[in-house]
Amino acid sequence: MRTRFNASSGVAAGAVVGLVVALTVIGSSGQAARTPRTADGRPNLNGIWQVMNSANWDLLAHTVRPAVAQLGVYEDQLVPAAPVLALGSVGGVPAGPGVVEGNEIPYKPEAAARKKENADHWLDRDPEVRCYMPGIPRAMYMPYPVQVTQGTGRIQMVFAYANASRTIYLGEAPAPPADKWMGHSVGRWEGDTLVVDVSDFNDRTWFSRSGDFHSDALHVVERFTPITPDALRYEVTIEDPNVFTRPWKMNMVLYRHLEENATLMDYRCLELVEETFLGHVRRNQLVKRWEGDSIVLDVTRRVPAGDKRYER
Q1: Which CATH number is 193's domain given?
Q2: How far apart are CA 303 and CA 123, in angstroms?
Q3: Residue 55 resides in a domain
Q4: Which residues of the chain are modeled with pLDDT < 70?
Q5: What does the alpha-carbon distance between residue 169 and residue 155 come to, in Å, rounded to a whole number?
Q6: What is the span of the domain harbouring residue 232?
Q7: What's the confidence (pLDDT) of residue 290?
């Protein structure tokens, strides 16, 4: 088949291209116009937000695996280890495409060894298991919602998990707090993007259940950018010269809850880990044995290493 070109077809083709360009421009400007605004013209971030990914389990691309694993019958085949065996599929890690730019976290060699050790002992070491404050940025991508209340001088974020909260100061900010679990957040607007500089951390929070950690030299820069009226692009730059060879980035999307009855419900997890914290000091142990239809679990508590107060 031969294609003919003439002036009229050229004009038609040009008109189509022009229409596509025009629609693209109108679409992008229309999107900006549809972004909810506060009285001072800033994007309105008020509401309840939540990610839809598996970053809290693992920041890098990963397949399905047991949360605590051991080698199975076949070489390199992981199966659930005793701590999660009774949970079956509930004790697994869902697959995820990863949120880290380049799918690499640039650990220093000694830090990479510690990260692997953390992952191997995740159930004993992850601060999330013990209901500690999750830190930033982890609080933003845990599988629980966050409520944002926006003002002109500050933005307050309250997290369902562990009653955690943070204040983002816009403009003049007070000195960093003594409790540094959530860091110290100072923000500014760059157009429609909220940029937040977070510093003054302790070294006790993790980035994920896979053992990703940091030191007290952690420095985080977050960028919140509206991409639709109910979705925010969340970009994070991580810098910690004690742990990483260079800064690295991750990005994901936060979605606004649109249910009519959307409400932030507290996940007061401290009650759930009381036995983890203090169970070893009970004279008569509550947790010793569990029997199901297909499995029997015997639990032996271990006194915290080096703690002679509770040895009997």
Answers
A1: 2.40.128
A2: 16
A3: no
A4: 1-33, 304-312
A5: 7
A6: 97-256
A7: 85
pLDDT value for 299: 83
Statement to judge: residues 177 and 218 lie in one domain:
yes
Tell me, yes or no, whether 148 lies in a domain: yes
* One domain, residues 250 and 104: yes
Give the chain's domain count. 3
3-state secondary structure the chain: CCCCCCHHHHHHHHHHHHHHHHHHHHHHHHHHHHCCECCCCCECCCEEEEECCCCCCCCCCECCEECCEEECCCCCCEEECHHHHCCHHHHEECCECCCEHHHCCCECHHHHHHHHHHHHCHHHHCCCCCCCCCCCCHHHHCCCCEEEEECCCEEEEEECECCCEEEEEECCCCCCCCCCCCCEEEEEEECCEEEEEEECCCCCCECCCCCCECCCCCEEEEEEEEEECCEEEEEEEEECCCCECCCEEEEEEEEECCCCCCCCCCECHHHHHHHHHHHHHCCCCCCCEEECCCCEEECCCCCCCCCHHHCC
- Is residue 5 in some structural domain? no
Query: Model confidence over 217-250: pLDDT tens digits?
Result: 999 999 999 999 999 999 999 999 999 999 999 9
| 75 shares its domain with 103 | no
Same domain, 107 and 240: yes
The predicted structure's pLDDT at residue 121: 92
pTM for this one? 0.84
| Last residue within a domain, chosen from 78, 95, 112 | 95
